[in-house]
Specification:
- Helix content is 76%, strand content 0%.
- The chain contains nine helices and no strands.
Length: 207
């Protein structure tokens, strides 16, 4: 594909990624609660979720969501409830001064991967966004599959860098906080942010 088209896509994706949404709020909250061990499962979960969301969009679910208010509402409220549930679990998580950094005192990697995957993959706004966004950078006269592969790989690469930055930054902040009281406040801030993300998602309207 033309370098000008690809460059425009990269710029658009960077703007899209740096705007905090439910996924970014989730990874920050989880990283603040569980530290550096959360980086790999969270980044992997977000990438897998975005890949599924893009695949569903290309398969036509995005078009269905754009026309079906009922299906949009079902997915939206599932996401809202799940975000609020995660926020509650993070807010009320127990913290121990010495054990908080051990694997037994934190969520498993699979659990963090699952949370990041579900919040990302089942965001109806993202699915509709992909089905409207990706075709803008496709040249019909050129091989479609090759262009889609380039766009998807580019998008996932930028997302990986963005989410890794947010996760590492939040994890580093947690490592410098040693007291159980401070860690508890980190959990409360992260939990409140997730509940807030659920509230923001609840206000989404189907255009």
């Amino acid at each position: 594909m033309a370098i000008e088209m690809w460059s425009a896509f990269v710029l658009a994706v960077i703007v899209f990624c740096i705007i905090p949404g439910p996924t970014v709020i989730l990874v920050i909250g989880q990283a603040m609660a569980h530290g550096k061990q959360s980086v790999l499962p969270l980044v992997s979960g977000v990438l897998a979720g975005d890949f599924v969301a893009m695949s569903l969009s290309l398969l036509g679910l995005g078009a269905v969501l754009a026309t079906s208010a009922q299906l949009f509402l079902i997915l939206k409220w599932f996401g809202v409830c799940y975000l609020i549930y995660l926020g509650y679990k993070t807010f009320t998580a127990k913290v121990e001064t010495d054990a908080a950094d051990s694997p037994t005192a934190t969520k498993s990697g699979f659990s963090m991967f699952k949370d990041a995957f579900l919040v990302t993959a089942l965001n109806p706004k993202d699915i509709v966004f992909f089905v409207a966004f990706l075709p803008q950078f496709i040249t019909p006269s050129e091989p479609i599959a090759v262009q889609l592969s380039i766009l998807i790989l580019t998008f996932l690469s930028i997302v990986a860098i963005n989410i890794t930055f947010y996760t590492v930054f939040a994890g580093k902040m947690r490592e410098h906080i040693k007291s159980a009281s401070a860690k508890k406040w980190f959990n409360r801030i992260g939990g409140s942010a997730l509940v807030g993300a659920g509230g923001i998602t609840a206000t989404m309207q189907k255009a």
